[in-house]
Amino acid sequence: MSKTTRNKPSTAEQTFLDEVRVLLLPERKDRQRFQRLLNAHHYLGGLKAVGEQLYYVAVDAKGRWLFRTFPTFRDRMSRRLNQIIRRAAGPNP
Prior knowledge:
Largest sheet: 2 strands, antiparallel
Structural class: mainly alpha
Shape: globular
Strand order of the largest sheet: 1-2
């Protein structure tokens, strides 16, 4: 079995990732914005979940949502951001 070579983030990318925070969105207006962005940009569209829902968003050091704000290395960092989000959300029930 061959090993997969993974590129390490550059110093600038790592600095960016070190400043990423994951926030819960308790406000309805923020959750509506979240849904609008999903509907507009995600290939599956918005959430169609049933029951209780928690919305989380990753933000940069300035508090800006990271949804499509870093396209130059978005693909390389998506896996790493997903790991950060899963860690912040805690274990699955």
